[in-house]
Design brief:
The protein is of the alpha/beta class and 1925 residues long. It contains 75 helices and 50 strands. β8 and β9 form a beta hairpin. α25 packs antiparallel against α26, α33 packs antiparallel against α34 and α41 crosses α42. The radius of gyration is 44 Å and the shape is globular.
Length: 1925
């Protein structure tokens, strides 16, 4: 039966209405009402419920196929809204419903019934049942119904008992959807229904249920469950990030031993390799019972979807020890099949699949998959399922294990039931026996369920615990928990002097430990402790009895005297015993737990030690009812702990008071010192082993232990004992210079405080101002002075305007006039209107301008509004039916029309509609993108966007000037501060120790910028001494009080060097540099407490260590909540877009929302359960970060609508980047300012200008907010242009590719960057380093490469992957065809053996041979000086035991060129940091001469430049950053050999195979690096740049790829022309189609106007006749002189009677028959026949006809019942004539307005026709040129003439290049000009890379002259001013 959306929707609405009614009335549902509730099937597959339905206007945005559902969806909204108490609840219901639409597919009842009945047949009738994702309770129904059907003869005596006589099943259901949960609770009032996520179950149900069964959700959606998220088990941690993994493990947790888990889940659980860890974990704690693959059409009838699913059944067996069976091992593993998809080995081997038809297709995500269909529908599926389950249960279901852990009463009941079933189950079905014969080799189940089980449980059922215990743990004593020493334990005895044995301890009140668990001494197994009656006391009067003698014989030897003595002592003994008992009772009473009545300090928590009177104990339940649990301790331990508690509380009081009040608390500090000294005097240091053992009894011990730190093995007090560490209390009292006074003022007040400066320097304020002339300026806005760097920086335009206003009121203030003059002099030159490039949709432009443009474009009133909170535009028009909106700027798709307003919204938000259509694929209808409609829509969107700029140019000069001023004020207002740090003296800096004459000027300026701005970006090239900048900046900020606790973070490889430099520069500085061991889990808290409690000059951490610092949960929660709000707003926007949104888009946003919600829940949990021993970043007091290699944090999360745009990276970001954002927001929130950190990197922009947005998001959030930029999309709207390219797919379809390729307003973007950046190149700094000498080494392709190039071209054209020797492309791979082609081309270029080692062989002309030859030449050339070389390649890296390019080149160097093998090494061989350093040292010494490595491993952190003479680039990396990092290994200060013996140059050899991508890729990167450098310098020659179209994720575009591989640049031009022509022809086709549509529309309108004109004339004639003939009474009312045939007179009754007779009897057969006259008009009757409900239906209607021959009627021509009204019917008809006339007149007037517009559209010619003709002409010319170039070479030409010709051509080429001027001056080394490679007659040609760049310019960046190239060598070497640390 086909899925009927309408019927399901109706049923759902009725069920929801009923559920609300039942809830309102507070009653249970009747059986009839339960049937209504059970008809609820969720909204899976009914996506229309998400469409807007608040008004009738919304229906226009619905697809035609869904419009029939509009009334029902509107009703659904109404029902939910009417039953919601407020708007927030209504939104919660619909938010919950959204997820239901995407995931709620309910399992057919028959399927679950089969599962329940088969389990019941095998004795599994669960008494405690869990459904973790219940829906409407299908699984609960099935198991309850089966339980009742099993025992129909037994009637329960009461409602609590089931028919079995046992209590009714204890059912717990979880359902997250609010509406579904409400219905579920009414369907199953007897169950415990929790309307929340399964993760909220916590630990309440551990080890409880007999069975859990459900259809569980699937996906990488995170949940928060502390027992998983905080688990030490990595698999459990990962499970919390995937719903399906979590449900499986959590389900097992909640089962008791032997319990059954039965889940229906996605096939991905079994098939995906990513889920192998969870399958392994399941098999470690359960037995596999069954795994069955269900058909894809299982959910078709119920949810209208086809999806693959599996039924997995497991039986819990915690910590199983028996080995896995063969099937269980197969269950864990998967194998990839030839069709490109993975299949679980158990499924593949056993084929437990229900199907009648199978085919290879795709899953719902577009991935290749097997699709199984069962044509028997649900009944057929259920029948086959029963057979498979019966077979599996017989073989694997362990019934004894299930029953072993049942409660005793249930076991006794089940014994009888199993005995009655034993006969039935003792024999296996015939089909099973046959199966067992076929699979005789498989292991047989160890336990046969046929035998009745009578075993009684020998151990009690395990109670639910707080944790899952997979292995039994020993009971610990209190002393074990507190880690008492043996000596201390011996001191703890009862006051009576007797030790209690274990048995006596059990008789005493149980004292719990800190975690609420009973304590006691564990008894060895197999031994019994003696009872109290058996114990003997050894005293002088009572000796041990001799062995072997009877007690009576011994007693007989006592005499009478002794008996009297004994009798007399009894009284004393009894008195002592009574006193002892009383003392013991008093002791027991004293040690009883009691309420803690004192105030609870904030640092107390469960487990904290506390004092109560003279007792010490620990606290429990402090959040609710604090209980004090006394501890019984020896007197010394009691005094020790009491003193410890006092120290701890005093410490917290001191720290908290100083942190809060920012004032020193002398009293508390003295007290802390006194208490600590007293403790040390009595008991020794806190951290001595004995003290540590005792102090660990306290839950807050680690923080107090950190009050001591050890230096040279001696304990030293932490700084908090001496001075505050929560703030800086240092105060300067005197300075010598005005500059120092200025710095001190900035230190204390953050501003220029002249009074304070005068006091410090003993100078007058006027003298200070004179000394600081030009350094400080009067700022009347703050009524004080500011330093130049601060005053003349930032938005100077706004400052100048405000100061002008001040001067107008205070004209005599000369200081203010000087300040104004300085600001005006610094104001940037305004940008004129003609220079500006406007984007349609820039957020700073007022929406009124957009509205005015849209109204002009559509020729009607259009209003555009903008909601900044969600970065959303809305477009509305007063007349949506306007022809421009409905026709000219509209696109019609198969399902709907995208009118002009829709496209304008896309245009203003720079997005593209996702238009789809349905096509037939085989027998199936599938939805695909309508590329033709999308292309037409994009064409119209571009027209709208481009039209905005044209419209602006047509506006008045005044308008343009106002807009220009607005732009300049907003963006062109910034002045970069001129940082001059030359006056700094750097006290305490040990210049001699560093061995340098002083700092570079650039280093001083960078430090000064950091001090003045409070951070920024230090963008210095490699070798600029960034390490020393960090150290000096951190120390100076600390010294001046600009930062209290600065932190430096760097790469792990560099962090030791940074720490060593800091200690060398500042020998007396207090630096914390933790080692690797300090950040192990057991030491992490201690080291973080040291960071918190000490006053460090700097803390130095690696990036990884920084990531281990917990960030403030409050800050994280705040930022993530903002992100969640943004996501929810996007979700709302997506929903409001109706059918423009795909399920994939909705699922993606919903998934991100769920993951953010889980993270926020985790943070909330951490806040609510915070432990004082966890120090987060906020509490540490760190207030400035110096981040080395900051580009490592560039992967920051951001929200964007441009989800199909290439090159944007991962919008969800990385955790590392997120941690950095949290830390910066913590600092910025504290300071109230931007920055708060100093980023140091030579590659802040590593690849694309989009990275600038993330830098600004980190460091300048307030500035972005000022510019109105709240999101990435808002930033891109101002500074970027999106390009859309169209390419042909494998199936010759047009594919749309989007990317932000062009950037506009680049100078303003550069100014925003430069305002906070100190950028210096090596030349700026004056670094004495060698120059780059770049060489492009061309290599002709080998025959194998030439052949493969042709295959690559063919593959790029047709997508036939078999040409490359690999399997055909999968559906998923087809989308990445060009990326695959690009990667194959890269491998081909490096070495053919990377493609197929067996198929291809070595060749003399491959890169390996050329590279080995050149390495050998350099080796021999610089052998005397032991010159070294680097070889870089990210492909073919070293892998031991495998063929790789590194090893192949080494083999050639050793075997062919005689280089010793130990002098050629690979960086990958260094497995440890120590070996890595040894390798670098060996290279600097010349022991290693050639070092291979990848960019990642060798490109950073390697200072092995001392002897480097050459760098070989075997492949070209993806980003300019990587290229610079590679070159920086040799082009670096400290390269002695290059400076002394290689003309101070390092050769960079770039190997390029001709007709490969090598040269193109290098040129692209070089140009990109060039304009990035120009942007940083602020020397852009243009306002727009083009980044190119190649990246790591998408490869390169098709046309350029084919042209480059073919080796003919003309082909590239041809491909580009052909692409442009195809695009233009498609656009012309769409234009003509639109024009034809307009012609048809105009023709229709003209016909309508003509027809209406005729009608108007005829109607007017009738109206005129009536007005002339009508007779009226005295009141002016018309008379009714009707003349009806057959009636005399005009009596109303007679007339009505006659008309009634005519109505009943007349039969005119569709003709109009006259029946009378009125005012000369004919009165007519007409018989009309129709069909109604299968019967003929005849109706007579009455009309009035005049000369216009128009039939007028009243009330539809139907006769009224009342006689008077009936008689007036024809007279009343004349009243309808004026409205009818007016209607036709208005319609004609309305449609006539569209006539000139449509005529204009029809007359309009396609504007690009000339362009298309020109392109076709150019293509024809180019074709002729290509044909001429491809003429065959004459066979008579010999090889010599060829060589000569080639030589001449090459020399001509070089001459031509020289005539154009070469930007790089390069000469080949002499030794290479005449050198020859081994086994070659001609040396490989090498040319200057600069000549190659000039030959074929790749990217147009505004014709910037090459003299600006930052890499060009300087002719004059600057003298060395500093050093490279």
């Amino acid at each position: 039966m086909a899925y009927n959306k309408k019927a399901h929707l109706k049923d759902n609405i009725e069920a929801i209405k009923l559920a609300f009614a039942l809830e309102r009335e507070g009653r249970t549902a009747t059986p009839e009402e339960q049937a209504v509730l059970r008809a609820y099937s969720g909204f899976g597959g009914i996506k229309a419920v998400l469409n807007p339905a608040s008004s009738l206007a919304d229906i226009a945005r619905w697809t035609k196929s869904d419009r029939e559902l509009f009334p029902l969806v509107s009703q659904l909204h109404s029902v939910i809204r009417n039953h919601s108490k407020d708007e927030a609840e209504y939104k919660r219901y619909f938010s919950s419903l959204k997820n239901s639409v995407l995931t709620a597919f309910y399992t057919p009842q028959d399927i679950v019934s089969v599962l329940a009945s088969e389990l019941g047949n095998h004795g599994i009738v669960p008494s405690r049942f869990l459904d973790p994702s219940s829906g409407t309770g299908v699984f609960v129904d099935a198991f309850q119904q089966h339980s009742e059907q099993q025992h129909p003869e037994q009637q329960p005596s009461q409602i609590e008992l089931s028919p079995t006589g046992l209590p009714r099943p204890d059912v717990v259901c979880f359902e997250k959807d609010l509406l579904t949960g409400k219905i579920l609770s009414h369907l199953h009032p007897e169950a415990k229904v929790e309307i929340t996520g399964f993760e909220e179950s916590g630990l309440r149900y551990l080890n409880r249920f007999d069975m859990t069964a459900s259809n569980i959700p699937f996906g990488d959606v995170a949940v928060f469950d502390p027992s998983f998220t905080k688990s030490k088990n990595l698999i459990r941690q990962q499970a919390a990030k995937s719903l399906h993994k979590y449900f499986f493990l959590k389900g097992l947790d909640n089962l008791r031993e032997g319990g059954i888990l039965a889940y229906i889940t996605s096939q991905g659980v079994l098939d995906s390799p990513a889920n192998q860890d969870i399958r392994y974990q399941l098999m470690q704690h359960s037995h596999l019972v069954s795994a069955i693959r269900l058909p894809n059409n299982l959910f078709t009838d119920g949810a209208g979807t086809e999806v693959g699913s599996d039924l997995i059944i497991l039986q819990k067996k915690s910590n199983r020890t028996e080995p896995l069976t063969e099937d269980e091992s197969a269950f864990i593993t998967t194998t990839k099949r030839q069709d490109g998809f993975n299949v679980n080995d158990y499924i593949f081997r056993n084929i437990p699949i229900i199907y009648t038809k199978a085919s290879v297709d795709t899953d719902p995500y577009g991935h290749p998959a097997m699709v199984y269909i069962h044509e028997g529908g649900v009944p057929g599926i259920a029948s086959r399922l029963r057979d498979l389950l019966r077979n599996d249960f017989h073989r694997r279901l362990n019934v004894p294990l299930y029953q072993q852990f049942l409660p005793l009463e249930e076991q006794q009941k089940n014994v009888q039931m199993q005995q009655s079933q034993s006969a039935q189950l003792s024999e296996a079905p015939a089909s099973i026996k046959e199966a067992e014969q076929v699979k005789a080799s498989e292991p047989v189940a160890a336990i046969t369920p046929a035998e009745p089980v009578t075993t009684i449980v020998k151990e009690p059922l395990p109670e639910p615990k707080e944790e899952i215990e997979l292995s039994p743990s020993p009971v610990l004593s209190l002393y074990d928990l507190f880690e008492f020493t043996a000596e201390e334990r011996t001191q703890i005895t009862p006051k009576g002097g007797k030790r209690r044995t274990a048995s006596s301890a059990r008789q005493q009140p149980v004292q719990g430990n800190l975690f609420g668990e009973p304590t006691g001494t564990a008894q060895p197994s197999g031994k019994k402790s003696k009872s109290k009656s058996q114990r003997k006391t050894v005293t002088g009067q009572n000796r041990p009895q001799p062995s072997g003698k009877h007690p009576a014989a011994i007693s007989s030897v006592f005499d009478v005297h002794r008996e009297e003595q004994q009798t007399s002592g009894i009284a004393d003994e009894q008195a002592k015993e009574a006193a002892r008992i009383a003392a013991e009772e008093e002791r027991k009473q004293r040690m009883q737990p009691r309420p803690y009545l004192h105030e609870i300090p904030s640092h107390y928590k469960d487990g904290s030690l506390a004092t109560d009177g003279n007792l010490i104990g620990y606290l429990r339940d402090i959040a609710f009812a604090p209980m004090f649990h006394p501890l019984e301790l020896p007197d010394r331990q009691l005094r020790k702990l009491s003193l410890y508690v006092e120290i701890r509380d005093t410490y917290h009081d001191l720290y908290n008071s100083e942190a809060t009040e920012l004032k020193e608390n002398v009293v508390q500090r003295d007290k802390l010192n006194r208490l600590y000294d007293d403790f040390v005097r009595q008991f020794g240091n806190l951290n001595t082993p004995k003290n540590v053992d005792l102090i660990r009894m306290d839950n807050d011990n680690r923080e107090i232990l950190s009050l001591e730190r050890y230096k040279d093995g001696r304990a030293v007090k932490a700084d908090i004992f001496d001075h505050p560490v929560a703030f800086n209390k240092n105060e300067l009292t005197h300075v010598d210079t005005s500059d120092e006074a200025l710095s001190a003022s900035l230190n204390k007040y953050g501003e220029v405080n002249l009074e304070y400066m005068a006091k410090l320097s003993d100078k007058s304020e006027e003298t200070l101002l004179d000394d600081l002339n030009g350094r400080v300026f009067f700022n009347p806005l703050i009524k004080g002075y500011e330093i130049t760097d601060k005053f003349i920086s930032g938005n100077v335009i706004s400052k100048a305007e405000m100061i002008e206003e001040y001067i107008a009121k205070h004209p005599d203030n000369e200081r203010a006039r000087q300040s104004l003059a300085a600001l005006r002099a610094a104001t940037p030159v305004p940008i004129s209107f003609d220079e500006l490039d406007f984007n349609f949709g820039e957020r700073w432009i007022p929406t009124g301008i957009y509205s005015k443009y849209a109204s002009h474009l559509f020729d009607t009133d259009v209003k555009i509004t903008y909601a900044a909170s969600r970065d959303e535009f809305s477009v509305n028009a007063s007349a949506r039916g306007n022809v421009r909106i409905r026709e000219q700027y509209a696109v019609k798709s198969e399902s709907r029309r995208y009118d002009g307003l829709n496209l304008m919204k896309h245009a203003i938000q720079n997005t593209s509609p996702d238009i789809t259509k349905k096509i037939m694929v085989g027998e199936d209808v599938v939805k695909v993108r309508d590329t033709e409609a999308i292309q037409l829509a994009n064409s119209k969107i571009d027209e709208i966007r481009n039209g905005f700029s044209d419209w602006l140019k047509e506006q008045s000069p005044e308008f343009k000037q106002r807009l220009t001023d607005m732009y300049n004020r907003k963006f062109n207002n910034s002045v970069k501060p001129k940082y001059d740090g030359s006056m700094q003296t750097f006290p305490d800096l040990d210049i001699k120790g560093l061995g340098i004459p002083g700092l570079y000027a650039s280093q001083k300026d960078a430090v000064w910028m950091t001090k003045i701005n409070g951070g920024g970006i230090i963008d210095h090239e490699v070798g600029g001494g960034k390490t020393l900048i960090m150290c000096c900046a951190a120390y100076e900020m600390k010294r001046l009080g600009l930062a209290n606790k600065p932190m430096i973070i760097g790469l792990k490889a560099n962090i030791h060097e940074i720490a060593q430099t800091f200690k060398t520069a500042y020998p007396n500085a207090r630096v914390l540099y933790p080692g690797k061991e300090d950040f192990t889990p057991e030491n992490r808290v201690r080291i973080m407490r040291e960071m918190q409690n000490n006053d460090w000059d700097a803390i130095i951490l690696s990036h990884e260590q920084f990531g281990m610092i917990p960030q403030s949960p409050e800050i994280q929660q705040k930022i993530l909540q903002q992100e969640l709000d943004s996501v929810e707003e996007n979700l709302e926007v997506l929903s409001q877009q109706g059918t423009e949104v795909s399920n994939g888009m909705l699922k993606g946003v919903e998934k991100r929302k769920a993951n953010l919600e889980a993270k926020i829940k985790e943070l909330t949990f951490e806040i609510e359960n915070r432990k004082d021993d966890v120090v987060d970043f906020k509490l540490m007091g760190i207030d400035h970060l110096l981040v080395d290699e900051s580009h490592k944090f560039k992967n920051l999360m951001f929200t964007t609508r441009h989800d199909r745009v290439a090159g944007l990276g991962n919008s969800e970001g990385s955790q590392r980047a997120l941690n950095m954002l949290f830390a910066l927001r913590t600092i910025q929130e504290r300071s109230g300012k931007d920055l708060g950190a100093t980023f140091l990197s030579g590659t802040t922009i590593s690849n694309s200008l989009t990275e600038l947005y993330l830098l600004f998001k980190y460091l300048r959030p307030k500035e972005l907010e000022r510019q109105g930029i709240n999101t990435f999309d808002a930033w891109a709207a101002v500074f970027a242009k999106k390009s859309i390219d169209y390419e042909f797919s494998v199936t010759n379809e047009i594919i749309q590719k989007e990317r932000f390729r062009y950037f506009i307003k680049v100078p303003e973007l550069a100014a925003m960057y430069n305002e906070i950046t100190d950028f210096r190149t090596a030349e700026d700094i004056g670094i004495d380093r060698p120059a780059k000498n770049e060489i492009l080494h061309n290599i002709p392709p080998t025959p194998e490469q030439q052949e493969f190039i042709q295959k690559l071209v063919a593959f790029a054209k047709n997508g036939d992957a078999t040409l490359l020797g690999r399997a055909p492309l999968s559906k998923r791979e087809e989308k990445a065809k060009m990326l695959i082609a690009t990667n194959y081309a890269r491998k081909m270029s490096l070495d053919m053996r990377l493609i197929d080692e067996d198929k291809y062989s070595d060749h003399i002309d491959n890169k390996a041979s050329h590279c080995a030859a050149l390495i050998s030449q350099y080796y021999k050339k610089y052998d005397e000086h032991k010159g070294t070389q680097f070889v870089f390649s990210d492909l073919g890296t070293y892998k031991p035991g495998e063929w790789n390019a590194y090893s192949e080149i080494k083999r050639k160097l050793v075997e062919d060129h005689g280089i010793p093998a130990d002098e050629v090494r690979f960086i990958q061989e260094a497995k440890t940091e120590k070996s890595r350093k040894a390798m670098i040292a060996a290279m600097n010494e010349g022991k290693i001469r050639v070092l291979f490595g990848s960019t990642e491993m060798l490109g950073t952190g390697v200072n092995a430049q001392r002897r480097c003479v050459a760098i070989h680039q075997l492949d070209i990396p993806w980003t300019p950053k990587d290229l610079e990092q590679r070159n920086g290994r040799g082009v670096r200060k400290g390269n002695e050999i290059a400076k002394l013996f290689a003309d101070n140059k390092v050769d960079i050899i770039n190997y390029a195979v001709e007709k490969s991508l090598d040269s193109y890729k290098f040129n692209l990167l070089h140009n990109k690096q060039l304009f990035i450098t120009q942007l940083k310098k602020g020397s852009m020659g243009t306002r727009t740049i083009d980044e190119g179209s190649m990246d790591e994720q998408g490869g390169m575009n098709f046309s350029e790829y084919v042209a480059i591989l073919s080796g003919n640049t003309d082909l590239l031009d041809k491909a580009k022309l052909e692409k442009q022509i195809a695009s233009l022809e498609s656009e012309r086709k769409a234009f003509n189609r639109g024009k034809s549509s307009a012609e048809a529309k105009l023709e229709d309108i003209m016909q309508t106007v003509t027809r209406n004109g005729d009608l108007i004339a005829r109607i007017s004639k009738d109206l005129q006749d009536f007005e002339q003939r009508v007779q009226r009474d005295a009141q002016g009312n018309p008379l009714n002189p009707i003349q009806l045939d057959g009636v005399k007179g005009n009596d109303p009754k007679l007339i009505a009677q006659k008309l009634t007779e005519i109505e009943d009897k007349a039969r005119t057969h569709g003709e109009s028959h006259p029946i009378g006259k009125l005012y000369g008009f004919d009165l007519l009757v007409k018989t009309e026949a129709s069909m109604k409900d299968g019967f003929d239906f005849i109706e007579n209607r009455f009309f009035v006809r005049g000369e216009g021959k128009i039939l007028h009627n009243f009330n539809g021509g139907r006769l009224a019942k009342a006689p008077k009204t009936a008689s007036l019917m024809f007279l009343r008809t004349f009243e309808t004539i004026p409205p009818l006339l007016e209607r036709y007149q208005k319609e004609t007037e309305k449609i006539s307005k569209d006539i000139p517009i449509l005529q204009e559209v029809i007359k309009e010619t396609w504007k690009k026709e000339d362009r298309l003709k020109q392109l076709k002409s150019d293509l024809a010319t180019l074709d002729r040129k290509i044909q001429l170039s491809l003429k065959p070479v004459k066979q008579t030409e010999d090889s010599d003439s060829k060589d000569e010709s080639q030589t001449e051509h090459q020399s001509e080429y070089q001459t031509e290049q020289q005539s154009h001027g070469t930007p790089y001056v390069h000469q080949m080394p002499d030794f290479m000009k005449n050198a020859s490679a081994p086994k070659r007659a001609v040396p490989p040609p090498s040319i200057s890379i600069k000549a190659a760049l000039n030959r074929t310019p790749i990217a147009d960046i505004g014709a910037v002259p090459n003299k600006d190239d930052p890499n060009a060598p300087n002719q004059v070497n600057k003298p060395s001013k500093g050093f490279k640390l």
